[in-house]
Amino acid sequence: MNPPRPLAITMGDAAGIGPEIIIKAFAAEQAQDCVVVGDAQVIAAAAASVAIPGALGSSVARIEHMAQWQSLPPGVIPVLQAHGLEPDSLRDLVAGQVDARAGAAAHAAIVTAAHAALRGEVAAVVTAPIHKEALHAAGVPFPGHTELLQHLAGGVPVRMMLANDELRTVLVTIHMSVREALDAVTFEAVLETLRITHLAAQRWGQPHPRLAVAGLNPHAGEGGLFGDEEIRILAPAIRQARAEGIDASGPHAPDTVFMRARNTPGHAGEFDVVIAMLHDHGLIPVKYLGLDAGVNVTLGLPFVRTSPDHGTAFDLAGRGCANPASLVSALAMARQLSRFA
Known about the structure:
Elements: E1 7-10, H1 18-27, E2 34-38, H2 40-50, E3 59-63, E4 76-81, H3 100-118, E5 124-127, H4 132-137, H5 145-152, E6 159-163, E7 168-171, H6 178-184, H7 187-203, E8 210-214, H8 229-243, E9 247-252, H9 257-261, E10 273-276, H10 279-288, E11 295-299, E12 305-308, H11 325-338
Parallel strand pairs: 1-2, 1-5, 2-4, 3-4, 5-12, 7-10, 8-9, 8-10
Antiparallel strand pairs: 6-7, 6-11, 11-12
């Protein structure tokens, strides 16, 4: 039998809450199958500052290779130093402030973890929050995790999914202005999103996923009265997807389709996933249900990647009060999806 592989947790922006919530996840015994990728000194400082009495995960050990993670004593957090990240380079970071060094370190951690995943050394990658302004200050030419991971995986088509126990939403467009996004909603982009989502859902154990396409315009265009994108773009893409054996329906009115898809003990959702055209159209409904349970998943990568659905929370950084619940949910989702990978 092959030895068990850990989950890789990237450190995120060292000036944000990432290191703190990572420590708290270990302390709650929710990350004992994980290796942190980042800076050992930053993680050790976070462990010292959180200082949960009697908790596991209060000490940190730097490892040289992923395979060393199981050789450590129980309760010790293994940290793989990100490639190219020198010790002491982040010692005087100020919590809650944008710093190019933190952006560069976050980038290095993502690259190191992604390469480990591509080599099959980890079961999944879970990314702590990064700060887009810090990335930009460091000269990183990608606006976020999704685009960077897509690049590292060779440019494969990917899509962002935000999910919790009640609702799953996949986006056609993500980090661009609304004006640019409107032009990016094309027949090809919608059809590709349906294909990626269908295949991903099959891989996570749903052989016949029901995909609902949310309209772009109010009332899904109302037959062309409020815009014709549904007629020109969305409906033809849905027809083609159905011809390929994909259970896609719509375009549905975007102001009601999320309620119809929501799965609760008192209401079985009509759909397994909603496809939304724009970033905020799709993410607001999921985030409204609660940030603690939401998980960001990148579909289309050759490895499993999940993330909390919140940001770096600079207003909370360094105060010791950050909630690790969304990270814990991301870890649980990564374990679930990696079983099917």
